[in-house]
Specification:
The chain is mostly helical. It is built from five helices and two strands; from the N terminus they run βαααααβ.
Length: 171
């Protein structure tokens, strides 16, 4: 590891990490709600993958998507904040575009694991069983890989253009 890469590194205030966490959570949660709502309807109404979701799940897909999104707001806000703090201390990737791509991939892995766990949890709470949860989780996960990586990368690039909460080093 190159110890000289920290020379001249700007200090980032915690308020910046908090603001990035909140703005990303708004974008990510809207994406989760829309994806889960449409995936539950798509899989359930068309019996995709041979899965028959209960009528209660189909009728209440907006509430289920809302519960998933609400839980995700809590879990992913915490996970994102810690991910942001860890990445601030990683200095072995100096080129910003590559750093943003690698950071995007690492966040997507953390986010995917959280989404899969939450889908199973919500299905169990809502229906008393996890029938169809694997298919919904896999479908949401598969779509989120595309949508959330694009959205997250754009979010990182937008935040990179703002200096709010960044204290330039005097070195």
């Amino acid at each position: 590891m190159n110890n000289t890469s920290k020379i001249g590194k700007p200090k980032v205030e915690h308020k910046r990490h908090v603001a990035k966490t909140i703005t990303w959570r708004l974008v990510g949660s809207l994406d989760t709600f829309l994806l889960s709502y449409f995936v539950i309807g798509f899989i359930g109404e068309w019996n995709l993958f041979g899965v028959q979701l209960s009528d209660d799940v189909l009728v209440k897909k907006a509430e289920i998507a809302g519960l998933l999104t609400a839980l995700e707001i809590f879990t992913k806000t915490l996970l994102y904040y810690f991910h942001e703090r860890v990445w601030f201390n990683i200095d072995w990737i100096s080129k910003q575009q590559i750093r943003h791509i690698v950071k995007t991939i690492s966040w997507r892995l953390v986010g995917a694991i959280d989404t899969i766990i939450l889908v199973f949890f919500v299905f169990y709470i809502w229906d008393g069983e996890t029938k169809g949860a694997a298919e919904v989780a896999l479908a949401v996960f598969s779509l989120e890989i595309i949508t959330k990586m694009i959205l997250y990368y754009l979010h990182e690039r937008v935040w990179y253009t703002f200096s709010w909460g960044v204290i330039k080093s005097e070195d």
